[in-house]
Amino acid sequence: xxxxxxxxxxxxxALNLSEKRVALLTTRSAEIAPWAKSFSTLKxxxxxxxxxxxxxxxxxxxxLAHNTSQIVPSHLLQKASxxxxxxxxxxxxxxxxxxxxxxYRQAKEYGITAHFMEExxxxxxxxxxxxxxxxxxxxxxxLLHKANDLALNCMADVLKxxxxxxxxxxxxxxxxxxxxxxxxxxxxxxxxxVWDDVEEMQRRIKAFHVPGHNNLYYRIGNERVYLxxxx
Length: 231
Hints:
There is one protein chain. The chain has 2 domains: 2-163, Formyl transferase, N-terminal domain (Rossmann fold, 3-Layer(aba) Sandwich); 189-226, no CATH class. 29% of the residues lie in helices and 26% in strands. The protein has 7 helices and 10 strands. It has helices at residues 29-32, 50-56, 74-79, 98-104, 140-163, 182-188, 198-208, and strands at 2-6, 9-14, 20-26, 42-47, 62-66, 82-88, 109-116, 126-133, 217-220, 223-226. A 6-stranded mixed β-sheet has the order 4-3-5-6-7-8, with helices on both faces. A two-stranded antiparallel ribbon has the order 1-2. A two-stranded antiparallel ribbon has the order 9-10. Strand 5, helix 3 (74-79) and strand 6 (82-88) form a beta-alpha-beta unit. The protein starts with a strand and ends in a 5-residue tail after the last strand.
């Protein structure tokens, strides 16, 4: 096994083994399972829950995360020969709820990022950033669905490259400096101070209202009153 470390990210050169053990943490295992055994050198195991992955995972295994909000703990990252995450959201929108913020900031493009995992979220070297144009009628959920499908294709390509012992190299892409947090989402969903600003209200409704969820609200004293409730 040969492994190098560059600029806080792992450069996967080659795993000189007849069989590479790969653990894939994903919420789309049903779609991946049909082609999971099509690789010549990979023993690919699919997991939807982190605790199940931990029971199977051994030192030197490859760890991939795809389309999951679960945070991989540091002790697993330290055991992995390579740890890679592929998720919806381009490097311009690190952190939580990127599809909402892309709509709110009126971005022209959205997409996905494939990157080496570190203890900090959305911090490792980027190996792939794929973008697509945002259409005027795209909702946050529409962006999320498009990006998740794109991430699935990217995951298939990454697995093929690992299977063929092709190196996964960092590319000249950088994360935006601010990572959105859940607190940022909750704060901007409070429309108490912008109630009379029609343009701002329209932006927030388009970006943060999701049918079936209590998101946007205003305050009356210490009480929250939700604009739409659960549709």
